[in-house]
Design a protein that fits this description.
4 copies of one chain form a homotetramer. Helix content of chain A is 28%, strand content 20%. Chain A is α+β, with helices and mostly antiparallel strands. The longest helix of chain A is centred in the last third of the chain and has 26 residues. The first copy, chain A, is globular, with a radius of gyration of 21 Å. In chain A, the strands form 6 sheets. In chain A, strands 7-6-8-14-9 form a 5-stranded antiparallel β-sheet. Chain A has a 3-stranded antiparallel β-sheet with strand order 5-15-16, with no helix packed on it. In chain A, strand 12 and strand 13 form a beta hairpin. Chains A and B meet through helix 2, helix 5, strand 9, helix 6 and strand 12 of A and helix 2, helix 5, strand 9, helix 6 and strand 12 of B.
């Protein structure tokens, strides 16, 4: 279970100058499903207790609807809400996904399947490099999770500036799945690409999902976009992003995920409360100026879980 | 059931000079679940028989793996394949989605919920108009489903040129959901945005899904991206695209869906067959040079089905 | 597909003097999912058209709530009902289960798994024989599906008497699953016994499900009921009915299913209509005086489907 | 949450002379989903920690396959097993069901729906009373959960004798659902009766499920079994047990559930270990001589959960 904890540490708050300063230790405690270091086949129950929750931090939010938060929609849906920490809409929920993904990773690596992501843009600063040229070992040596040192430095500098202004900024995470054999996925109802899309867009703050050629596909011609076979199961290009007709084709699966800027900014914002009265949401608390560095392990985890599900499905019929 | 058929007619092949010339009548025949014009609560079974299938059209494809088609991945998954017409990976499968969407539309419109889409780009030709300025009645008066006549004419001309060259081109469909009340969706496992993403990316040839601000969110600051409340349940901007924390906020839900160029081009392409032997895939058959005009009702149908599901869920607990 | 049809013929009406005289040919037509005699992995669509439906037979039932039928409950649930032939509550629905079971049978027999049932009682007439002493080949040589000729003859005679009186009678079907290895099933949420119970009780007219020792277990002591191991995976007795903790133990799975007498009797019965007015339901139509002979292939089909599902699940993790 | 705890106390061990003497306090601690005494709509997470687990009690079981336990089947399925306390096959798992049922009860009672069970037999000792004549207040004044004092006393005496012999005995629990309106359930795939059967047979040690007339239906004639309407939605008899065609008819739903004798007896039993070697399973530990008294709240809980699910489903379409 050391690997589960180390995976979780990649996501934890307070790990660098460009993340939130909340100091949660994020220690995972396994409750069930693991015995003498092995999974038992039964559900793996675990708990990650809050170590640095300051309920007081949220007292001022009791009746406020913060702009672009889920405060209002939760009230609209349920008619009752736990205002402390955003409740279930808090990105803290994704810690559980990272734990589950860490288990899936240990399963998938037995079959030579690897998943890795990196920050490919922060605001206007983009990494212009093909993923195949990336040195994976450099990703996590950078606090911004961008493998190109020069670009990473500019990203870090920009995030620090933005933070001083009490503002936040968006970005993108790119992710690659390697070693997945051809034939994994489903043809109509749970296409592998569709399930990856759902997995990614389910992550807090995600606004767009692109597979392979992504949004650029709309401007391309078929004669350019088509991936010619070079050999059985190998293609010269990979605009498809590794999936055809909902099923993996044995090429790398490549995707890009867009994150909006964090909604909690350290500035006062005009807003309303639950009675519709105008008021000011003050920018208190300790939040990330940019989520993408901490989002890398979350994106990976959701890929790992999606791939593990589909891999198991195929094993049943294979 | 007339409305079901008319919805299906919007998708059918052979409807204009810029779509495939296959002349399928696409007549839906209801088998069960409807009695004296009313749904019974039981499953609605229906069949759309092929009227213009020419199996001969596909004889030359028996062992060929067409580039960027699902021929290879189906063989990899199942080890057996019906080569006639792409089998289940054929976009013809989406006709069923349009029928189901037509039923969902009749349910949702009782609650004042409307869904409508349009072509927002073909290749490099883009419609630069806010959806709020669009005259919906103009969408279907255009064979390319673009509501701006000048832009539509350029799109049509471009598609016709591309077709003459035996090539194909990508494009985008934008879609809007209006009238959905706040509070529809789920907070974690089936977020409304995640389910919409899955629904859209499940459509053949889709490469990207964007909600609200979409890919542009990565370049924005929080102070610009946040949607300020103007009144209870109303915001001044709509970068969120109508969803917060997986739940609708009562604003219009806006999305953009990118389609790649159709893989079947009317040119010879180098490829391989099921034995790995090099060969040439000849460009026969009758295919669309650009799918987006016929994709509009499909995008709408998938929205309608997703919204109907979530609406029913909320009714259970509301 | 010949085997699918022959399985279906075991269930069809009009096959003997003790079943309904409706002469439906029950011909299954495959619509999809099978190509050149092999399943494709995609859904197998099929249709069994009514050949002897006489809508007139049901005209007198338009507003009547027949005693112990689903007429009233369908109206209560849906507020609208197709009164012709019982609609979806007709046991005719089970023909589809038999078709699906026939496909599952062909899959399971590759692994040496067999499922077979027989009539073990009609009214008070019981077959007092351990299933292990039964000659399976004798089951279907009897129109009442009871493998003991002497008992079968008494059952047939009794059913014919009952029919002359315009009445109906209940009975039981016993079923055995053989060749299933140990380790199939789930420990909590989808226990194999629980799924078999659901499958059996979902069949029209079933009132009770018993596994292994069944209702007699309530009167037994643990020292008698416990199945001692004779060897690894073999036990001396089988009160457990082949399942422990939701998971198969490699012994035969044995069960007994109780069917109530058919509700449609050929006598006039006092009842009410949809306005609550008293009236008489006349005993018209062509119905079975006892369902158990035709229920044997249905019980088998539901076992086959349940086992195939669980077998595939285990293959995924095995 | 007091009501959740009190429901759980009805199931807890050590509550009387005829139950196991393990003294688990079974205190439920809510982790999530409840705020200021109200459910939030999000999952209700809770934990019941073991207070009296004595791992030593199970050391002698490490490699033994106890007769009629799940030791062997878990090994067959997973190839790995936590031998302490039966692991997940322990009836202790049902404590969670009782907690969940207690929440469902609070929801359903708002609509006037009540669920109550009682012990109707222990070994050969049966309560011969129609449920309508039962004084519900007497059920829980009896440690054996049988509302007739004279019968209860005989049951208690018999259980104590059996325990002295180191043996166990089976029994039955009867359960009634009252106040459920007509129209709840599904017509084919999730029939209310089928879901109740699955729910009941999923409880540890259950061998049979009977609805309404149950196994006696096999011996009845249709003219006797049919329930004549006395008024709209009211019938003179209730052999149907309150469900027709998978859907409730507004009458009381009545069922009977058979429990086998507990497999753990306080006697030595011949058995084998995981290597197939013969050995003796010694009768240590603290177990129930008869489970039915403690099973009453479990049966009720599974009914409550099943009914709540179906009630919510119907609300969605109603």
């Amino acid at each position: 279970m050391e690997r589960v904890q180390s995976e979780l540490d990649r996501r934890k708050p307070g790990q660098s100058s460009i993340t939130t300063q909340r100091k949660e230790s994020d220690t995972v405690k396994i409750l069930s499903g693991v015995f003498e270091g092995k999974t038992l086949g039964s559900p793996i129950g675990f708990i990650i207790e809050n170590s640095d929750a300051k309920s007081k931090d949220y007292d001022h939010l009791k009746d406020v609807y913060r702009p672009s938060h889920a405060d209002f929609t939760y009230d609209a849906k349920y008619g009752v809400r736990d205002h402390r920490g955003g409740g279930r809409s808090s990105a803290r929920e994704t810690a559980c996904r990272v734990v589950a993904g860490a288990v899936a990773r240990q399963y998938l690596e037995k079959f030579g399947i690897d998943v890795w992501g990196y920050v490919s843009s922060v605001g206007e600063i983009e990494l212009n490099a093909n993923y195949q040229s990336i040195d994976k070992t450099q990703i996590h040596s950078s606090i911004v999770r961008c493998p190109d040192k020069e670009v990473a430095d500019r990203m870090i500098q920009f995030i620090e500036e933005i933070r001083k202004q009490g503002d936040t900024v968006g970005g993108t995470v790119s992710c690659v799945i390697q070693g997945l054999p051809a034939g994994i996925g489903e043809p109509v109802f749970d296409k592998l690409n569709a399930d990856l899309a759902k997995a990614m867009v389910s992550i807090n703050a995600v606004k767009a999902f692109e597979l392979g050629s992504g949004v650029s596909a709309s401007r391309m011609l078929g004669s350019d976009h088509n991936d010619q076979f070079s050999a059985l199961g190998k293609t010269l290009s990979n605009n498809s992003g590794g999936i055809q007709g909902g099923i993996s084709n044995g090429e790398d699966i490549t995707m890009k995920v867009t994150f909006k800027p964090v909604a909690t900014i350290m500035r006062d914002q005009d807003t309303i409360n639950s009675k519709g009265e105008e008021m000011v949401a003050t920018g208190k608390g300790r939040h990330d100026p940019c989520v993408v560095p901490r989002a890398v392990p979350i994106v990976e985890a959701m890929c790992l879980l999606t791939i593990a599900d589909h891999y198991l499905r195929q094993k049943a019929i294979g």
